Amino acid sequence: MSSSFLVLLVIAVFMGALIGLWLRPSHREQPSEPPMHRSPEEGRKSLAELIQAGQTINAIKLYRELYGVGLKEAKDAVEAMRDGRAPMALPERRELSDSDADDAIARAIRDNDLIQAIKLYRAQHGVGLKEAKDAVEAMRANVLRRG
């Protein structure tokens, strides 16, 4: 009797492991990177498809690529779209002239809002976070020296 109980126990453990693997959330295959897109319309369409397919991480990556925002802002936007709290569309991207962008960056530095200044610098110059941070810190040092 103990050997049949042992066999049943082994079978139950094996079946439990198989069911656990099958029910894992990562059982859906996701591409490592979202595809590059040629137009904003194609990007919005792909974004909606990624969200509807449950590929939230890739949707967040694509949202960041399309709109040039930070991780938290992209995550919040994608989750709002996924949950039906926001339409499946990107907000309008406002393009600033060079002088308007420079004024907005300088204003953010004067207001000691360095995060906003870095975001504006990145959006205007298309650089990475470190380069934008270094540039804004240099601009801030100049502002502080001038008084």
SSE arrangement:
Layout: H1 2-23, H2 40-52, H3 56-67, H4 71-82, H5 98-110, H6 114-125, H7 129-146
Helix pairs in contact: 2-3, 3-4, 5-6, 5-7, 6-7
If you had to describe this structure to a student in words, what would you say it looks like?
- This protein is mainly alpha-helical and 147 residues long.
- The protein is built from 7 helices and no strands.
- The radius of gyration is 24 Å and the shape is elongated.
- The model has no long low-confidence stretch (mean pLDDT 79).
Write a brief structural summary.
The chain has 147 residues and is an all-alpha fold. It is built from seven helices and no strands. The radius of gyration is 24 Å and the shape is elongated.
Q: What string, H for helix and E for strand, traces the elements in order?
A: HHHHHHH
Low-confidence stretches: none
Number of helices: 7
Cα radius of gyration in angstroms: 24 Å
- SSE-based structural type: mainly alpha
Distance between the termini: 89 Å
| Overall residue-averaged pLDDT value | 79
Largest sheet geometry: none
In which range does the helix fraction lie? Answer: 55-70%
Overall strand count: 0
Keywords:
mainly alpha, 7 helices
